[in-house]
Amino acid sequence: xxxxxxxxxxxxxxxxxxxxxxxxxxxxxxxxxxxxxxxxxxxxxxxxxxxxxxxxxxxxxxxxxxxxxxxxxxxxxxxxxxxxxxxxxxxxxxxxxxxxxxxxxxxxxxxxxxxxxxxxxxxxxxxxxxxxxxxxxxxxxxxxxxxxxxxxxxxxxxxxxxxxxxxxxxxxxxxxxxxxxxxxxxxxxxxxxxxxxxxxxxxxxxxxxxxxxxxxxxxxxxxxx
Length: 225
Hints:
Elements lengths: L1 E5 L3 H13 L3 E5 L2 H10 L4 E4 L2 E2 L2 E2 H11 L4 E6 L4 H9 L4 E4 L4 H17 L5 E3 L2 E4 L4 E4 L2 E2 L4 H11 L5 E3 H9 L10 H16 L4 E6 L3 E6 L1
Helix pairs in contact: 2-3, 6-8
GO cellular component, one term: cytosol
Pfam families: Response_reg, Trans_reg_C
Keywords: DNA-binding, Phosphoprotein, Transcription, Transcription regulation, Two-component regulatory system
């Protein structure tokens, strides 16, 4: 899962980033409104942790920009401003949750997991496509009832496609989502091809019915024959 932290407090931003990365999230940062705006224009995120009071703008205006861009991104407002008006406006503009500062990182993790379960699989703790089952809270993969061991990037790629079965995915989009912003600027995508090749072999060896197919000139598609 890819998260953008929009927060001007450097210490809080770094502490939150390290904590989220330990939980295997891909994390990007924006210390101000301008940087955040450029990032949401150029990249997609599974969730944005959004401070309201920024040095060069109001975080609530970023919610309006998300709407204008037509992007349906999960948003949790993290703000020391605890007024009812801010909460109502933020939720009306599309925010999914509101967590006042200071907050415990454990509560943030719990809210993120709950949010992702609600938005992607209607609250279920298990994702299933064909005979593949993924348990995100445990980073566990089961095929035909047997556990399959994957390395971190293999798991991240599988999770990404399990969240989007049947959808055509551009390799640039896949790279950004699994490896982070600016990875699309590398000279080649050999690192993706290698991970995809290894993942395909593991799935085939385990008897998976879904298949990760290449779409020439574009990217990949996760389908069940």
